[in-house]
């Protein structure tokens, strides 16, 4: 069996046959006060990292002076102890907080803040190629750091759950490096809405979302994504999450990159739908699924950022054509206004309604369930509880055990 395929099979086995994906990252960052009205959207939070990394070095220096526990004394444990206290200050605090909130809500998989992080997008903001690649890596480092802190909290906790509803249970946790589509880079919501308008110089060209116009060929998409995927694959993430894929040409580009570039970690493919029948561009789900099916490195296929009411039908369609585990992480059902970069509130479903569907989704074939935009740690906690009542959790201390 391919190493990647066995990773997901083993992960699901240890998770009792069903695993929990985290919830919306960007919208949760916003709920904590981040202003993401920016072409980089959630990736804007990564821009703080260069000076924060420098701050981390400064803290080590101060500690070494004051406590004489610098590296020449080889007192790494002491440094680590002090670092634990400073980690909130010296890391990208908001992303760590959000990843940790999801882990403590029961998520088995956390997805990095790289959805709208692209080398091209960072370069437009004046970063060099090297800095842009470092920012991509930073998105994974932040998630890995959150996982480490989480495991440490689990070790310190005497029970698997504490009074304030935090789930502190040592279990296999995967870090999935998000790759948003070319449409996400365009930052006009074109990966999400059906119709859009693109302006080229003085002419106005209507296009179907996800098609991007004739100039954006398979080759252009491969060239656009190649280096980003390579960097994320070498960053320490466990898998790549190709998310909110709006059309089959982009799925094909991803498959070819995975196959041609010797990408060392597996991936999942997740499309979104506005009608419950096709992917956003109007391409058929069956074609999308067959592209994913053709690639051994793709270890799960599914649907994200799609209203919950469409999920049942989409799982039924997918389950007829895929042999891979099916993942679903719907949004709250609210609509997105791409021009204002805002969600239209009160158009979605409550957490109770969302969670009431979960067992049915599992029953008809989903194996990985979480939430996308406008879902919160509360949504994920409710999913965890629902699934915990049904799944048979098998003891496994961490991913290292899992890989062995
Ligand atoms: C899936 S949509 C909500 C993501 C945000 C979009 N790419 C934008 O920049 O507005
Ligand atoms: N992983 C991304 C998906 C956006 S559709 C996020 O949660 O922000
Ligand atoms: Zn979303």
TrEMBL record:
<dbReference type="GO" id="GO:0033528">
    <property type="term" value="P:S-methylmethionine cycle"/>
</dbReference>
<protein>
    <recommendedName>
        <fullName>Hcy-binding domain-containing protein</fullName>
    </recommendedName>
</protein>
<dbReference type="GO" id="GO:0009086">
    <property type="term" value="P:methionine biosynthetic process"/>
</dbReference>
<keyword id="KW-0808">Transferase</keyword>
<dbReference type="InterPro" id="IPR036589">
    <property type="entry name" value="HCY_dom_sf"/>
</dbReference>
<dbReference type="GO" id="GO:0008898">
    <property type="term" value="F:S-adenosylmethionine-homocysteine S-methyltransferase activity"/>
</dbReference>
<feature type="domain" description="Hcy-binding">
    <location>
        <begin position="7"/>
        <end position="387"/>
    </location>
</feature>
<dbReference type="Pfam" id="PF02574">
    <property type="entry name" value="S-methyl_trans"/>
</dbReference>
<keyword id="KW-0479">Metal-binding</keyword>
<feature type="binding site">
    <location>
        <position position="372"/>
    </location>
    <ligand>
        <name>Zn(2+)</name>
    </ligand>
</feature>
<keyword id="KW-0489">Methyltransferase</keyword>
<dbReference type="InterPro" id="IPR051486">
    <property type="entry name" value="Hcy_S-methyltransferase"/>
</dbReference>
<feature type="binding site">
    <location>
        <position position="305"/>
    </location>
    <ligand>
        <name>Zn(2+)</name>
    </ligand>
</feature>
<dbReference type="GO" id="GO:0046872">
    <property type="term" value="F:metal ion binding"/>
</dbReference>
<feature type="binding site">
    <location>
        <position position="373"/>
    </location>
    <ligand>
        <name>Zn(2+)</name>
    </ligand>
</feature>
<dbReference type="GO" id="GO:0032259">
    <property type="term" value="P:methylation"/>
</dbReference>
<keyword id="KW-0862">Zinc</keyword>
<dbReference type="InterPro" id="IPR003726">
    <property type="entry name" value="HCY_dom"/>
</dbReference>
């Amino acid at each position: 069996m391919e190493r990647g395929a066995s990773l997901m099979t083993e992960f699901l086995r240890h998770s009792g046959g069903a695993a929990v994906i985290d919830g919306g990252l960007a919208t949760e960052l916003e709920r904590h006060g981040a202003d993401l009205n920016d072409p980089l959207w959630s990736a804007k939070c990564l821009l703080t990292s260069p000076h924060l990394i420098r701050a981390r070095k400064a803290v080590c220096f101060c500690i070494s002076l004051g406590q004489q526990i610098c590296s020449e004394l080889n007192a790494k444990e002491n440094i680590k102890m002090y670092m634990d206290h400073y980690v909130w200050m010296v890391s990208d605090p908001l992303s760590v907080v959000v990843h940790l909130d999801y882990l403590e809500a029961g998520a088995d998989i956390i997805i990095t803040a790289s959805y709208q992080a692209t080398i091209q997008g960072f370069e437009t903001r004046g970063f060099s190629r090297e800095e842009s690649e470092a920012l991509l890596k930073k998105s994974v480092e932040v998630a890995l750091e959150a996982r480490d802190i989480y495991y440490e909290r689990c070790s310190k906790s005497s029970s698997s759950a504490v009074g304030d509803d935090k789930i502190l249970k040592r279990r296999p946790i995967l870090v999935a490096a998000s790759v948003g589509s070319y449409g996400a880079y365009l930052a006009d919501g074109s990966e999400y809405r059906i119709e859009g308008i693109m302006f080229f110089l003085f002419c106005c060209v209507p296009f179907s979302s996800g098609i991007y116009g004739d100039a954006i060929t398979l080759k252009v998409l491969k060239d656009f994504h190649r280096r980003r995927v390579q960097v994320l694959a070498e960053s320490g993430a466990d898998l790549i999450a190709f998310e909110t894929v709006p059309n089959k040409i982009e799925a094909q580009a991803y498959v070819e990159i995975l196959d041609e570039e010797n990408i060392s970690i597996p991936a999942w493919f997740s499309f979104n739908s506005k009608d419950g029948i096709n992917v956003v561009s109007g391409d058929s789900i069956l074609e999308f699924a067959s592209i994913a099916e053709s690639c051994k490195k793709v270890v799960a296929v599914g649907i994200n950022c799609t209203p919950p009411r469409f999920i049942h039908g989409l799982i039924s369609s997918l389950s007829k054509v895929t042999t891979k585990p099916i993942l679903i992480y719907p949004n709250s059902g609210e609509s997105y206004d791409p021009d204002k970069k805002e969600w239209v509130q009160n158009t979605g479903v409550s957490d109770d309604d969302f969670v009431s569907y979960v067992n049915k989704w599992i029953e008809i074939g989903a194996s990985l369930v979480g939430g996308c935009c406008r879902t919160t740690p509360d949504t994920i906690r409710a999913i965890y509880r629902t699934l915990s009542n049904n799944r048979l959790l098998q003891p496994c201390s961490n991913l290292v055990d899992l890989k062995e």
